[in-house]
Automatic annotation (TrEMBL):
Belongs to the cytochrome P450 family. Residues 1-23 form the signal peptide. This is Putative flavonoid 3',5'-hydroxylase. One of its GO terms (cellular component) is membrane. The lineage of its organism: Eukaryota, Viridiplantae, Streptophyta, Embryophyta, Tracheophyta. SUPFAM superfamilies: Cytochrome P450. The keyword Membrane applies. One of its GO terms (molecular function) is heme binding. Its main location: membrane.
């Protein structure tokens, strides 16, 4: 056997072992929606074609309106019906309100003190109220 063939076989075996270990180490107490099987590194990206919305529609017919897929290593919940979306965002809206923190937002907005990059909470509400009263009021809009 050539060294290249041995390396390829070794890579396949390591990937298979890694997927077995990661599957067995997942906590079983989390209840996730139904999902198609995913590949170790690319997740379910191989199931999406040129028209991803059509692929997700086909998956929703098979697995239901709320399903779990992996886009690469990113776990993703896909909600594909308006009724389920409304229910999902009504009960879990606080989890999706804020933007994720990033290093660039720390530098651009003085430690996330601007209204755009700040986390949802009392400070954000106060900044929004101030901007509506002083910058976006009817007199200022007419002056522009």
């Amino acid at each position: 056997m050539s060294p290249l063939t041995i390396m390829a076989i070794l890579l396949v075996l390591l990937t298979y072992l890694w997927s077995l270990i990661s599957a067995s180490s997942k906590s079983n107490h989390r209840k996730l929606p139904p999902s198609p099987r995913s590949l170790p590194i690319i997740g379910n990206l191989h199931m999406l074609c040129k028209l991803p919305h059509r692929s997700l529609q086909q998956l929703a017919k098979k697995y239901g309106h709320i399903m779990f897929i992996r886009l690469g290593n990113v776990p993703t919940i896909v909600v594909s019906s308006p009724k389920a979306t409304k229910l999902f965002l009504k009960t879990h809206d606080n989890n999706f309100v804020s933007r994720p923190k990033s290093q660039s937002s720390e530098y651009l907005s003085y430690g996330t003190k601007g209204m755009i990059f700040s986390q949802y909470g009392p400070y954000w509400s106060h900044m929004r109220k101030l901007s509506m009263l002083h910058f976006l009021c009817q007199e200022k809009m007419e002056a522009f």
